[in-house]
Known about the structure:
By secondary structure, the protein is mostly beta strands. The protein has three helices and 24 strands. The chain is flat.
Amino acid sequence: MRTQILALLLALAFSPVSHAQEWARKMFGERAHDFGTVARGAHVEYRFVFENMYKENVHIAYVRSSCGCTEPTVTKRNLKTWEKSEIVAKFNTRSFTGHRKATLTVTIDKPFYAEVQLNVKGHIRGDVVFRPGSARFGEIDQTVAVEKTIQVQFAGRPSWRIEDVRSGNKFLEVELSEPKVAGRRVTYNMTVRVLLGAPAGFFRDQLLLITNDRSSKSIPMTVEAKVKPAIEVSPNVLFMGIVAEGETTAKKLLIRGKEPFRIVRIECDGCFEFEFDPENSKKIHFVPVTFTANETGKVKKTIRVVTDYKGIETEFIARADVK
């Protein structure tokens, strides 16, 4: 950490402005995004994730856009060490059509002044419209399948067709109606389902509509939901502490459900061990966790809990610092 801070101070003291702001750019994993070709009225956005990797707190003063075709917002302005936030770039598909691009300027005023430029671009079709603009489900229960109907309308030629709808997400299902043709207008009703057992938390994915339009065969549609967990793990980020190499430390997890359930298995690699009875069915399980510090460095693992309650699985993060 001292090396990172020293490098940061030296950059600010002795380098040109563009190079001195490299410390701020390093917080962003990506600084450009292409929305591709999207329908008019579609809900289209991209999230630029960034992380404070420095000892000092970071504060985002504001974000501005060079074009009204993209509206930027920031999800969290104050970041402590290793905290994450997002710059959300929302493409304005209701007011604009055609090829559009924008530069989003993120202004940081603490611990030092810096600016980071993020670039977005895309093509908004004027002949394809979604009503509503996306499949946004709001808050849903993890143990219930839900559905929403989106109208897809094309204006141009009566032979236009949707040939397929694709998704790599096993928790999404789509059903298309037969096309209704009226003059040069073609209309589909598309039923989108989020299936039982979708991962808890903020659910965001895309459907890809494949058409017979040779000039632009695919059109994306956003699916969003906030899935209420049927099984909750507390804490959802388990910090085992600062541990000396070769030592072992222990803590407890609380795993809770609305109804009695069994823990079938807990999936993780060798440095974490869990004690539970796979035959014990109850609403609340206290699970002892043991961590063995095999080698120095920061440890971060995603751990999956598999239960017998409607096939529900849940995940949490376990972390440790090994010195």
